[in-house]
Amino acid sequence: MKLLDGKLVSEKIKQDIKAEAAEFTAKTGRKPHLVAILVGHDGGSETYVASKMRNCSLVGFDSSNLHYEDDVTEAELLERIRELNADPEVDGLIVQLPLPAHIDPEKVTEAIDYRKDVDGFHPVNLGRMLRNLPCFIPATPFGIMLMLEHYRIETAGKHAVVVGRSNIVGSPMSVLLARNANPGNCTVTLTHSRTNDLKAEVLRADIIVAAIGRKNFITADMVKPGAIVIDVGINREISTQTKSGYKLYGDVDFEQVAPKSSWITPVPGGVGLMTIIGLLKNTLAAAKKTIYS
Ligand code: NDP
Questions:
Q1: Tens digits of per-residue pLDDT, 148-161?
Q2: Does domain 139-272 have CATH number 3.40.50.720?
């Protein structure tokens, strides 16, 4: 078993991003700028946004966290998004999900200018991804592809089974793995809660991508010996053993599955760190206008 080490890969790529950001700043007199909108006080969301802001500063980006209370109206939020769309000093704009029930996440996602949509959730970006055109790729799948690329994992001809079909992880991941590209060229099975005999499907996988949101869901008896295992899950549990008061678990039972796998991502220290890289790379591309002019 070998580790797909998100810490190592993300640190290396961050150095490249930092150098490019410095070049951009020297040329334009300003830093790439990411704005995050956060609504409410979900502990996970607050942690993720804080981490995104911290990483922006580490690579020489500006970042702003616009934090709203739970009772912000949908209209107020949409108006703010329109202002940020028009602001030339804002390169990337993300709205942290989930949103409170009275705000429609589809309306919010579509309100963001697709040229600033560095999360890659806007239908224009998702559509362009499907057509293999330049676009912002959703940060988590983008980060996973960068990880596979870094370790030169041969994916062509492999059977990939993606567990979970969300718009932000599972579905785009299945598209990217099936693309005629490297990494890519997999034969992909996309599974979900209505899949018949999930275990049989996962057992056929050369590459497993687990994006379910359930602690230790993928167990050793579901994994073919030698499989490559990508664990997207972040399941937070209260713990007295950590400084933060939380412990993170993946969707894969790491202890049991790792000895059977050829490559595996740990949680924490795997996909989560690569997601940040996906976001930083998209933000830099937005600032440099390399995808959309
Ligand atoms: P969603 O809740 O949006 O989607 C979960 C998916 O899992 C759904 O497609 C659902 O199926 C499927 N699922 C649920 N239960 C089962 C089951 N028993 N059998 C088969 N499939 C099942 O989650 P996300 O995609 O947003 O996130 C998944 C996990 O990844 C979470 O732990 C999340 O915290 C984590 N995450 C981590 C990131 C990172 O940076 N590492 C980034 C984003 C998410 P159905 O569609 O039928 O309901």
A1: 999 999 999 999 99
A2: yes
